[in-house]
Amino acid sequence: METLIIYNAHSFADRLRGLLFRRRLKPYEALWLSRCRAVHTFGLCYPLDLVFLDRDNRVLKIVHNVAPARVSICRRARSVIELNAGYCARRPLAFVPGRSVFLGQSSKGLPRVVFSVPSTMNKAFVKESDHDDDDDLGPEAVALPQGSKNYMTKSGYQRLRAELAHLMNEERPNVVQVVSWAASNGDRSENGDYIYGKKRLREIDRRIRFLTKRLEAAEVVDPALQPNRDQVFFGATVLYCDKAGTDYRVTIVGVDEADPLNGMISWISPVARALLKAREGDTITLRTPAGLDELDILEVIYPEPA
Fold first, then answer.
1. Per-residue pLDDT tens for 224-244?
2. CATH number at residue 248
3. Domain limits at 60?
4. Which of 12, 70, 182, 204 could lock 194 by a disulfide, CB 3.0 to 4.6 Å apart?
């Protein structure tokens, strides 16, 4: 994961200021020109690296070492990131064609933080210490049945998007500021704020990668639009009892929304698979480690349409 301080040149006046600012770009700084598909390097005395993005901030094209007094155009682009020449060559995983670049927002007048999702690295090129650092950063994605889509309820999708936005726009920039401050305080080997901040930054980056990948692959289903409201389908809340007479209330949701302790079960779980397509009043059989159990469907509930 590559981190930069990026300055947004949005309006015409900002763009004029940006053209002056880029003459003194530092190695960790960049300039983002929105609503832009052509870049000229007139007036510069050193080359630039250019990253052209589409409307969804996916990398369309990378141009290395653009010489002064040259024009570069990408007609499908909607914005451009300008960096010091050689940046993309030194850090090839920072910007990868086809991958999304995420622009963290900040208060007016302050720089933005930009980072991009790196491509998968060959394990032979990953240091052992780097691998160990990532071991405790959270669970991997739950495997889906082959050929199945990553179904997700509308509310669950919105909740995960809100979490992603919070991590990108608030928590990560705050942690970056703390790490930068701690790094300026001297010896990093005994600096608790720096060590914890770097660890927290890795945790946040891993969670962002996880959420981004899962949201991109999500198939959003709105349970409120289900026409067969007496039958159990994805997104239904089901009240049932087992043969011991104990009542249970569960909601069938996507694998990334599951929270069994709060009654949110994944649609690929054994209980959900047994309940799916059953109707109110039906008795179904659930195979458990203790043997077969009979479940009586008492009620099937769906959210009301908005």
1. 999 999 999 999 999 999 888
2. 3.10.50.30
3. 1-119
4. 182
